[in-house]
Amino acid sequence: MKIGIVGCVGRMGRMLINAIDQTPDAELAGGTERAGSPAVGEDPAMVAGLSASGLIIGDDPRALFEIADAVVDFTAPEATAAHAKLALETGTALVPGTTGLSAQQQAAIDAAAEKVAVVQAANYSVGVNLLLGLTEQAAAILGDDYDIEILEMHHRHKVDAPSGTALALGQAAASGRQVDLDKVAQRVRDGHTGERNVGDIGFATLRGGMVVGDHTVMFAADQERIELTHKASDRAVFAKGAIRAALWTKGQAPGLYSMRDVLGFS
Ligand code: NAD
Fold it and tell me: Which residues lie below 8 Å from residue 149, measured CB to CB, with a gap of 6+?
């Protein structure tokens, strides 16, 4: 299967090229970067630390969508919305990993999913998808006397907060409790906040160093505390999962799928 990587020089982009190289059924269709990037014109495999592929990094994503069977996108929110439109127009499957999308940018992905298979996940690792299921189950079993708090830490370069994975964990907890996350989420606390409301789902964000991604979901009651934790130690785990998702799109009907569908957890 021919897989295109948009934003192929980014931290995830280079990992994705390596993951394709290690996957027998996958072939790199090509890579793009934003217009004006010094990487345009270079060999995407060499940029990822591999031997020459004979391909050249372009800045025309439409040309890549036209030749690829699926495109994997870990770029930036505006770029991902534009790429979703191209997936719709060219009929190419899409794996959009970018986080921090606005409602309008998400709508572009939802629209593409009407015509092509899209696998969108805040986190493509097997472990986090298991954690999502466990969080939903624990929240359904434990009542409101267990306060739910979600703690995440990422490297200093991350630009959105809370992380997409933390929000997905919040969504899983809210689904377990059968409540609307938007009504109970406390995304930030600062100053004289007053006491915690019963039923809130709180978030805390840490940034620093090169932390790939740590997430803990806490259920805190008066006399006990349950903590479910996942720690990613290498972002290759996300790249491997995203390439697995891209391969899975082959032969799938149009629709918006999650990593839980790919892994058979749903
Ligand atoms: P990064 O900044 O290292 O890489 C992004 C790349 O996209 C850059 O090379 C940039 O030049 C390129 N880019 C930007 N606009 C473009 C455009 N219009 N066309 C082509 N390329 C363009 O960032 P990163 O650490 O690789 O993360 C990228 C995104 O992926 C972030 O939103 C991050 O939160 C998300 N992410 C998701 C997961 C997951 O499992 N879902 C895991 C890691 C990162």
Answer: 201, 202, 203, 204, 217, 218, 220
Q: Which atom of ligand 1 is nearest to the CA of 163?
A: 34
The predicted structure's pLDDT at residue 265: 77
Gap from CA of 205 to ligand 1 centroid (Å): 20
Q: Tell me, what's the pLDDT at 69?
A: 98
Q: Is the CB of 62 under 6 A from ligand 1?
A: no
Atom 2 of ligand 1, residue of closest alpha carbon: 10
Rounded Cα gap, residues 182 and 177, in angstroms: 13
The answer to whether the beta carbons of residues 165 and 123 sit under 8 Å apart is: yes
Paired sense of beta strands 185-186 and 201-207, if any: parallel
The residue whose C-alpha atom lies closest to atom 35 belonging to ligand 1 is: 98
Could you give the CA distance from residue 186 to residue 149 in angstroms, rounded to a whole number? 9
193-202: per-residue pLDDT in tens?
999 999 999 9
Instruction: State if residue 122 touches ligand 1 by the CB under 6 angstroms criterion.
Output: yes
Give the CATH class of 2-120+235-263. Answer: alpha beta
Query: Distance, CA 8 to ligand 1 centroid (Å)?
Result: 9
User: In the chain, where are the structural domains located?
Assistant: 2-120+235-263, 126-232
Q: Report d(CA 158, CA 172) in Å as an integer.
A: 23
Active site residues: 154, 158
Rounded Cα–Cα distance for residues 142 and 176 (Å): 9
CB of residue 105 inside a 6 A radius of ligand 1: no
> Domain 126-232 belongs to what topology?
Dihydrodipicolinate Reductase; domain 2 (3.30.360)
Residue ranges of the alpha helices (H) in the chain?
Answer: 11-21, 44-47, 61-67, 77-90, 103-112, 126-141, 164-177, 181-184, 236-248, 259-263
